Predict the 3D structure of the following.
Amino acid sequence: MKGTVEENRQALDRLYPRWIPATIWERFLYIADRYPKNEFVIFDHDVFTYEDVRRESLRYAKALMSLGVRAGDHVALLLTNCPEFVFLTFAAAAIGAVKIPVNPAIGRIQLHSILSRSDAQYIVLRERLSLDPDAVPNLKSFIWIGEKLPFEDAVKTVCSVDILREAEELPDDDIYKYAKEHGDPFSMCDILFTSGSTSEPKGVIELHDMIMRDSFATAYTRCYEIGRRVFLPVPLYHVMAYVGGLMTCMIAAGTAVFLTKKFDVSYAVSVMKEKRINDMQCMPITIQKLLNDGNLKPGDLPDMHAAYWTNCPTWIWKKGMEVLGVTDLSNGYGMSECASSVTMVSPEDMVGSAAHCNGRKKLGGITETDPEYGAAMEIRICDFDTGKVLGTGKQGEIQYRGPQTTPGYYKNPEVTAASFTEDGWFRSNDIGMIDHNGYLYFSGRYGDVYKINGENVSPQFLDRVIADCPGVVAVECVGVPDPRCNAVGAAFVDVTDPETVTEEVLRAFCKEHLAKFQIPQYFFFSDSKTWPRTASNKIKKAGLRELAAELIASKA
């Protein structure tokens, strides 16, 4: 890493000698005043310094206010990665509006549902979408930032190019004054909708201070040097790119590098080289493509020393260290409900830890120890049925509480109440175990675990084991109903060569590394690109279970 663990944390301590709760806009101004010339965001080859982002964010804030947007109003962003996404994020934060980032590629029915349930009043978009204004009851205006209007003769459509031009005449002081009068660190800043991999997407309430604390804890745990340059081939409407990426970079006056188009390996490598990337945060499928198709060799990315990948097969961690020269590999556990993550592997942990566990509780630094505003996150494992707190090495439900925990789901009191214990612990519905060193081991969603003759089987565990078989590119296991055993396992496998990595080879590997009842009864070979996924590119286990049932029926 650049600088030692101690040096980097001391630099963050000097930058934040006290933790005073602040809005996202106030925290941004704090950094922009101190590092105006530092590069903040890069989209492909377009570079924006902190001063550039301040200027553009003020323009968009004035444009929003000229349209009538005020503190507490709801603004939905139906945008893919682009500079305007960042400008509007800080513009909304400045005037106290609530941002609702939405994947514009989701289906029409789900899109209308999200916009309606989130009480969206203003919708920002730049691409023509199949949207019915009447399906969004609180809608006041579409704000169009593209070249052509999305709806002909739509009275609610506003061209923001003209609005921006008119807003330039308004004084910046109006925004600063309004932000100061209406800024509340403990007010809602975002409604982030879950991926919907297990149920209908829910609107997670995010607070300003909640996001800022989490971002600081990530930078502190991972020992960000001031000015770290992070490559983020992740959509900005995803919490990993937004909180774990953009906001964490801001905490350390760093640079967040995004792509505006679909991930292309050769193009991504060229951007990483040109922009002197230090760190890369992405999903497993992305790093898998990079390592398999990037033609990279040691020394090609001389500035890269860190990476954060989530729950990858062992071969990815090993190859990543060899090919990319990464010495600081991190993994973690989290969700939108805790702003980003609760646990994380830090540079102080044993090399290779990221391949086997999800790290320890993040270090909060001054956010935990400040005499007036310090507060720490807590994590525990409990029995799903009784709620009893379990000891070291026992598997149960992962629960957490603290200042980075959501207050609940927007206008969903029943689900909110069911998601918390009486003493305020958030029930994740995830299965995990904490060992005697404090490391968390995530085993999967409670609904994904299946029973074979009374024995619990974790698909997540099977995925990790089978992924270590030579020639396996990707694997996803699910449980399917069985009249004799209650359930049996079905493994979807993507391999390098189907002629050599056969079902017999996989069964032999499983017999060596798994208990007999854990070995999947079915193996289905296919390209992992064809597996059902959510809008945020997560595997849809329910979709795989349906597909497995169809394939089993066709075999029968």
